[in-house]
Specification:
Blueprint: E1 5-12, E2 21-28, E3 33-37, H1 44-51, E4 59-64, E5 67-69, H2 72-81, E6 82-85, H3 98-108, H4 113-126, H5 142-154, E7 160-164, H6 172-184, E8 188-192, H7 196-202, E9 205-210, E10 213-216
Parallel strand pairs: 3-8, 3-9, 6-7, 7-8
Antiparallel strand pairs: 1-2, 1-4, 4-5, 9-10
Length: 217
């Protein structure tokens, strides 16, 4: 069995700054839930963006779904198969209603409007969010927005989930709901989180990013 995602010797620096990632290796196997901890500014979000090609490494390689990925066309396929949930849900929700936001991904993948609407309805129902379908997205609570962004990504049927601080600023009830949902899913995951207890409950393997290097926690 080969990894879904493999980074080898990845290096990255923002202009005018010291290296954020300085030789990072990472492999994620099917079914794994890998957690990543680390201080603010360590490069955890940067790492997730490199996996899907939103940022490109200065050195090292990104292999995804069995193929080396170097060009934008390569990463378009990766972004269809790897679902990145951003730390700020407002970065992902931009349509007038929840149902339209969740249907956007399938539409972008070439589904018809009818197919996309049906997929969105199923994704919302699976997460017990059908009652939000016609709500105005920007009027949702923070907890509702986070779960809706997860529904939007799941509607694209990804093979792996990349989750950036999925419980950030959530109350206990919504954090418990997110945890329950994630534990019910079959997808492999990479979960960036500052929440020690959450990482312990969700993860099957724990890593820490610090000083540009990724090591076992």
């Amino acid at each position: 069995m080969e990894p879904l995602i493999a980074l080898d010797g990845v290096r990255f620096a923002y202009p005018g700054r010291p290296p954020t990632l300085n030789g990072v290796d990472l492999s994620v196997m099917p079914g794994e839930r890998v957690t990543i901890a680390g201080p603010n500014g360590a490069g955890k979000s940067t790492l997730l963006k490199i996996v899907v090609g939103l940022l490109r490494p200065a050195a090292g390689t990104v292999t995804a779904f069995g193929a080396l990925r170097t060009e934008e066309a390569d990463f378009r396929e990766v972004r269809r198969r790897a679902g990145l949930v951003f730390q700020d849900p407002d970065d992902m929700l931009f349509s007038p209603t929840v149902a339209e936001d969740v249907a956007f991904g399938p539409l972008n993948l070439g589904r018809t409007r009818g197919e996309a609407d049906a997929i969105a309805a199923r994704a919302l129902a699976a997460l017990d969010l059908s009652h939000l379908a016609h709500r105005i997205t920007h009027r949702l609570s923070d907890g509702e927005k986070r779960i809706v962004t997860l529904a939007a990504v799941l509607a694209m049927e990804p093979e792996i989930l990349l989750l950036d601080e999925p419980t950030n600023a959530l109350d206990e009830a919504n954090e418990a709901r997110i945890l329950e949902i994630l534990l019910s899913l079959p997808q492999a995951m990479v979960v960036v989180s500052h929440d020690t207890a959450f990482r312990a409950r969700i993860g099957t393997r724990a890593l820490r990013l610090s000083g540009g290097r990724l090591d076992a926690a």
